[in-house]
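Open question from group meeting: does this chain pack into something compact, or does most of it stay loose? Before anyone orders reagents, we agreed to write out a predicted structure and look at it together. Recording both the input and the output here so the notebook holds the full record.
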Amino acid sequence: MSTLTRREVLKSTAAVPLAAWLDAARDVEARQPPAPVNIKRAVLVSMLPKELSWQDRFSLARAVGFDGVEMQTVTDQTEAEAIATASVSTGLTIHSVMNSDHWKYPLSSPDPEVVKKSVAGMKTSLMNAALWKAGIVLLVPAVVDGTTTYSEAWARSVPVIRDQLIPIASGFRVQIGIEEVWNKFLLSPLEFNRYIDEFQSPIVKAYFDVGNVVFYGYPQDWIRTLGRRIARLHLKDFKVDRGAGTFEWKNLGEGDIDWIEVRKALADAPNATWLTTEISGGDRTYLTDVLRRVDRFLAGFRPTDAPSG
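Structure tokens returned:
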């Protein structure tokens, strides 16, 4: 059975009622394969069973089918070296490192000693990344709170990243991935663009979290607006009951995110090379299901839909 092209559908408009041919055109568009993306699948390290050794955790992730893992900052050098060994022996790539001190010691603090500790913590994360051959370190750049205004957060964080962190990251050949989180900062994709562009450096990129913007925006819009600035993605789903004023994190495909539209938007983010699931952890059966949902998303289906045909 032949498949109608969009042009053929449009040619038939004279003989078909308007509503009918619009439905047919949409059906043709829905059947078009999504633009291919070259994105690898990773799991956040906290999703792996903590009772296992690093070797066994990484072996499990590899056996499930994940291509890589996102680590969190490790301050103990012996442990960091054991993690590097586990990565090499299992073949599980450590593609990124999540910095750990940016909340406790924000770069936007008015206290120079707090900023100094933040820079030191980021340096440890960058050293981890260099040891583990990870390409990027995730950074929450600023925190707006009762003592730090939005403009102050911007004005304080930019020079520290530009003058101190970029030279360190450049020396390690590691990028800095700025993430938008619930820190009351970078609340629109236009601001996010401007913040990244402020540095005029290939070192600073966007680490976009799909779930973090659902309260006040649409992730597909953010992805298309940020475009080539995006280097990495976090995946999680989010359910909001605005009537009741409640929300909860959900497994992929069980929340409010329109995964089909998010998948389409990835065509506008060609530099996004890895995505990491950042949801609750579990055993091998659970992790296998999570990866299945990711693969359906990347194939252009909703994470919980089974492909037809």
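Observations to bring back to the group:
Residues 150-172 form the longest helix (23 residues).
Residues 233 and 275 are 5 Å apart (CA to CA).
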